[in-house]
Amino acid sequence: MPQLRNSLIFVAAASAGILALAGCSDMGGTPAESSASGGQVKTAAVIKGLDNPFFQDMEKGIKAEDSSITVQAAQDITDTSGQADRLSSLAGQDYGCFIINPISGNNLLQGVAGLKAAGKTVVNIDSPVDPAAAKAANAVPDTYIGTDNISAGKLAGEQMATLVSEGDKVAVIGGIAGDVTSENRVAGFTEGLGTKAKVLETESADWDRQVALTKAGDLLRANPDIKGFFVANDVMGLGVARAVANAGLTGKVAIISVDGVPEGLKGVESGELTATVAQYPYAIGQMGAQACKAAAEGESLPESVEAPVALVTKENVADAIKAAPAPFEPFENPFEK
């Protein structure tokens, strides 16, 4: 078995489409409206629902950098119109910089277009806006900060390939059908696994633990010889772990998920999960706030910024837990100065 990767791995934060999007904007973006204190800017953030621990950590990162930032969240992962309403409400106030974490590629575009027309700085984090639609609507953000979900999934696939034998069956549990984040993670996983195992058709579990438990149970009954599960986030991964335990197969079926939320790390520590590919919403949120400060100081914002990911296994999970929700090793941060 190849040596496990226990060091932080940096991945390109943007696909070609995202790079193209950022390339359509002025490299320097629009300077945020700064106060007399210099480099300080009144900032608002609109993120996904705080019912998910991933976005709880994102809020913590934003607030850790600047506790004065106003953070509003959607009710849940399906609240596209509610999230858009929150951005619209904040847009009418005297904020100079906006951090956005859209639920879909399009649900915040109308609000972003208005902000750009008003000369505000827009920092897009985690989930990118749709590049073509943003360009058409004159709603291109000033910078994008996030991880490459294809590369994160590929890391999981490469790890799974070390755990299964030639021709074994591997099941895949995705998030909401059609969701870009889920699809990219699954695509990356399939690429990383290669031809080592037979990948069953992806089952969508709506980012929900109970739905994942049910879907995994059904898969195990239909395919009792499954040797591994790739799961598109930790919350669903823990649901899959329960289904595997119910089948009496804990330790016999590998389960690799993505996110690295506290529950996921504890799952790796306890052996419920074999591994998780930790993304760092805390660092993404923190860099989003730092980007607003940089813009207020007149700095040019980069087109896109890499966010760190790390493969967390039994061997390094103690380090990951100790540092959480921050990354457990240094990473490249263009705003750190």
UniProtKB/TrEMBL annotation:
Predominant location of this chain? other
Which SUPFAM superfamilies does the record associate with it?
Periplasmic binding protein-like I
Query: Record's PROSITE patterns?
Result: PROKAR_LIPOPROTEIN (PS51257)
- Every Periplasmic binding protein domain range: 46-299
- Keywords associated with the record: Signal
UniProt-annotated location(s): Cell envelope
Keyword Signal attributed: yes
On the tree of life, the source organism's domain of life is Bacteria
Q: What is this protein called?
A: Substrate-binding domain-containing protein
Q: What is the lineage of its organism?
A: Bacteria, Bacillati, Actinomycetota, Actinomycetes, Micrococcales
